[in-house]
Specification:
The protein is an alpha/beta fold. It is built from 10 helices and 8 strands. The protein has an 8-stranded mixed beta sheet, sandwiched between helices. α8 links the parallel β7 and β8.
Length: 301
């Protein structure tokens, strides 16, 4: 079944600004400002990539009628400063951005939601059990590079034979920029990245703004292998250290598979799992009602 794209075009953020972080300023937007000091803790969204931007997390602003929503662009991404210094491209420094946002906006209590690469950042942050963190949502998270690669290679083996052959041939010949390879890759993306009939503009914006140098440095060139700095990354040992309630959330056909999320949740002291029906890696567009319902249920709204 193909899903209709659910575009989210808000009227504009209620408040924007910059926070000083290690390496440069990071841009943020805030919606639901009137709830900032309410009983409902603000929700801070951490985008994926590496090298992406906040745009595709805009569906979260639908929750701003109930609580404060804060989104931001990581350094060298989106509207944030772009020093282009690869020495800044470390997990430790990206994790430090969360405290920079909290300090700049005086956020004493919060819930995190990190998507994909942002899920990695959220796990790292939550495992430190900082004061005022009330919960964490790991949405389609990258937690173990080895598990991510294994699951996506399994997705690949389920593709039509002609698609697999095209992928293998171009990879063997070193012609992955060839239109034939890219067409084959799009078949995989339609199954496991975003299953909407048309690409949501926010997802198009994500790809348009992507910092390719940052992505290649941390991840690499291809979808089926990691050759960057994250090639040996595994945050699963950190999960047992997290002391706040957690939600592992993913799509039914996600790159971050339901089986992987259930396995990671089993390592986490207080964790639940929500699998969004019919969705893959972009459940906020593919099944936005179920996605937002899961968040409301977890956050207690």
């Amino acid at each position: 079944m193909r899903l209709l794209a659910a575009s989210i075009t808000p009227t504009g953020p209620e408040r924007t600004g910059y926070a000083d972080a290690p390496g440069g300023r990071i841009w943020w937007r805030m919606d639901g400002v009137r709830h900032l000091r309410s009983q409902r803790a603000p929700l801070i969204g951490i985008h994926g990539g590496p090298g992406g931007s906040h745009d595709y997390l805009l569906p979260l602003t639908r929750l701003s009628e109930e609580r404060t929503i804060i989104l931001y662009d990581q350094l060298d991404c989106g509207d944030s400063d772009k020093p282009g210094d690869a020495r800044n491209w470390t997990v430790e420094r990206f994790v430090a951005e969360v405290d920079a946002i909290r300090a700049a906006l005086e956020i004493e209590r919060c819930i995190l939601i990190g998507h994909s690469w942002g899920g990695l950042i959220a796990v790292e942050y939550a495992a430190r059990n900082p004061a005022g963190l009330e919960g964490a949502v790991f949405a389609s998270p990258l937690i173990s590079t080895a598990r991510w690669i294994a699951d996506n290679r399994a997705h690949r083996t389920a593709l039509p034979p002609e698609v697999q052959i095209a992928l293998e041939r171009h990879e063997a010949e070193g012609t992955t920029s060839d239109p034939g390879y890219q067409a084959a890759l799009r078949v995989l993306m339609k199954r496991h990245f975003c299953r909407t009939t048309t690409e949501p503009p926010e997802v198009a914006s994500l790809f348009r703004k992507m910092n390719g140098s940052l992505y290649r440095t941390l991840w690499g060139e291809g979808a089926f292998a990691c050759t960057g700095l994250l090639k040996d990354y595994d945050a699963s040992p950190l999960l047992s250290q997290i002391q706040v309630p957690c939600l592992f959330l993913c799509g039914e056909f996600d790159e971050s598979t339901p089986a992987a999320n259930r396995a990671f949740a089993s390592l986490t002291p207080d964790a639940k799992v929500s699998v969004i029906p019919g969705a893959s890696h972009m459940p906020m567009f593919e099944n936005s009602i179920a996605f937002l319902t899961a968040l409301r249920w977890f956050a207690g709204t």
